[in-house]
Amino acid sequence: MLKLDLHRKSFAGHTVLEDVHLEIKAGDRIAVFGPSGVGKTTLLRIIAGLDKRFVGTREAPDEIALMFQNPTLLEWRTTKENLQIFHPNAEETDIQEALSQVGLQDKADHFPRQLSVGQQRRLALARCFLTPTPLVLLDEPFASLDQNLRQEMLALTRAFLDKTGSALVLVTHARDEAEALGAETYELRNVTQTGAEVAAL
User: CATH top-level class for 1-63+135-145+166-200?
Assistant: First the structure.
């Protein structure tokens, strides 16, 4: 489903990723660890097809769901509209069910600024899973949340993955998140030390 052979990724002549090879099959779940600045988000953007300026090859499904640490909601759109604009063919009942699953059924007409940080994160998660895709990419979506909300978000994410059967690539610093989602763990190492290879832990 996903095959990435990334020989080199550079910014302004500085190599940030090198010799990264990933192959992910349907339903696989992996978590990518590594120190800040090692290139985890860059790798995720390449997997998503947002960054095509690298040396190598990428094979991926046409439909991929992506959630960043920042919810990246459209501030001028309501909660419901934030779902509809990314899923224009979704049925009304599916939208209402998605909002209900994340506890926002009474917030359909609210704007993002009227939602708490936790509610915004839950909305972004619902947007990610409203229409099932073969591959879901999550970039530290649970960072800076309090423990209760983090556990709630993890449970919702696992429930969505179990329901849809989507493959997962999670970027995180927290190993308990990988464990909670049943993800195999990989380490992205510093390019100056090891060639930024992705190695199974």
Answer: alpha beta
Domain map of the chain by residue range? 1-63+135-145+166-200
Q: What are the start-end ranges of the H helices in 8-146?
A: 40-48, 79-84, 92-101, 117-129
Please state the pTM of the whole predicted model.
0.86
One digit per residue, pLDDT tens: the chain, 201 residues? 899 999 999 888 888 898 999 999 999 999 999 888 888 999 999 999 999 999 999 999 999 999 887 888 889 999 999 998 888 888 889 899 889 988 899 999 999 999 988 889 889 988 888 888 999 999 998 887 888 888 988 998 999 899 889 999 999 989 999 999 999 999 887 654 333 444 443
